[in-house]
Amino acid sequence: MGDDTNWTADPYELLRVHPGFRLSDQATDATPGFDGDKKAGARELSEGASLLADLQEQLFACGRLGEPRSVLLVLQAMDTAGKGGIVSHVIGSMNPGGVHYAGFGKPTPEELAHDFLWRVWREVPAAGQVGVFDRSHYEDVLIGRVRKLAPPEEIERRYGAIAAFENELAESGTAVVKVMLHLGKDEQKRRLASRLERPDKLWKFNPADVDERLLWDEYQEAYQMAIERTNSLQAPWFVVPADHKWYARAAVQQLLIRAMQGLHLEWPPPDYDVEEQKQRLAAS
Asked: By the 8 A CB rule, do 241 and 182 touch?
C-alpha cells in the first residue's frame, strides 16, 4: 500500500482468523483497517485493479514457462452476501484467460457416486491460474451439517479430508485464500426484500433462501465449526464483514494482492537473445 490510501492497517492480518476466534463476536457492518466511506472504497478498488491485473499477468507468464504456482480464492457466505459482486468487481479486473471459475451447486448423480472432493479436484487451478470457487467443498460441511445430509461421523471425516486437500494444494504451490463474507441477518433480510421489489432482480430470488434463513443460527454454528477445524497457516481463513459491499470488495482485492505478492514472482527470462531479435526485427 502506498501513502495515498485509506487503508490504515493491513487487512490481511486484521481479517485473518487467529486462535480463539468466535464468529459471533465479529461485527458484520465494520470496515477493519479502512478509514473512508463508500466513495473512498470505490477509489481504492479502482486503483488496486491495475496492480492485481499486473500480478495476475506475471503469474500467468510464469505458469506458461513451467512455474507450478497458482492462487485459489474460496468464497463462502450466506445468500446475498455478495459473492457475485466479488467475482464481477474484483476478479473481473483480471484477464479472463488466466482465471478458472467454478461454482459448486447441488451434486449431480455422477458426483454423488464419488467422494465429495472428487468434483473439487477436477476444478483446482492449473499452473499460472487464479482459481475461484464460488461456493466450494465447504458446502459439504455447512449445508451437509445443518440439513443433516450426511451422518455426524461423515461430517467429521470431511473436516480432516478438507484440511488434507488444502494442505496438498499449498505444498504443490497453490496459495489458498479462504474468505467468508460475514453478512448480518438484518442486512440479508433487507437485500432479499429489495430483490422482491425489483423486476430485474426477481430472477435472483429463490424461495429456498427464506427456508435457509430460518436456520440462520444453525448455519452460524456450522461456519464456526468449519473455520475452527480447517484454519491453518497453509490455508488461512479470512472473515470479511459484508454489510458494506464496497468494503468487502476492496478487502478481498487486498487479500488477493497480498497472496500474489507473497509468491515472490519474477518475470520469466526469455529463452532467446533479445538484441539478436531486435536486429532481426529491424531488418525484416
From this structure: yes
Tell me the C-alpha distance between 133 and 101, whole Å.
Answer: 6
Block residue for cell numbers 538484441: 275
Three-state SS across the chain? CCCCCCECCCHHHHHECCCCCCHHHCCCCCCCCECCCHHHHHHHHHHHHHHHHHHHHHHHHHHHCCCCCEEEEEEEECCCCCHHHHHHHCHHHCCHHHEEEEECCCCCHHHHCCCCCHHHHCCCCCCCCEEEEECCCCHHHHHHHHCCCCCHHHHHHHHHHHHHHHHHHHHCCEEEEEEEEECCHHHHHHHHHHHHHCCCCHHHCCHHHHHHHCCHHHHHHHHHHHHHHHCCCCCCEEEEECCCHHHHHHHHHHHHHHHHHCCCCCCCCCCCCHHHHHHHHHHC
pTM: 0.95
Q: Look at residues 3, 40, 13 and name the one whose alpha carbon lies nearest to residue 244.
A: 40
Amino acid, single-letter form, for residue 133: F
Spacing of C-alpha 183 from chain mean position: 15
| Neighbour-count burial of 225, counting CB atoms closer than 10 A to its CB (0-12 exposed, 13-18 middle, 19+ buried) | middle
The predicted-structure confidence for 177-236, as pLDDT tens digits, reads as follows 999 999 999 999 999 999 999 999 999 999 999 999 999 999 999 999 999 999 999 999
Strand-pair partners of 181: 77, 240
Tens digit of each residue's pLDDT (9 = 90 or more) over 136-194: 999 999 999 999 999 999 999 999 999 999 999 999 999 999 999 999 999 999 999 99
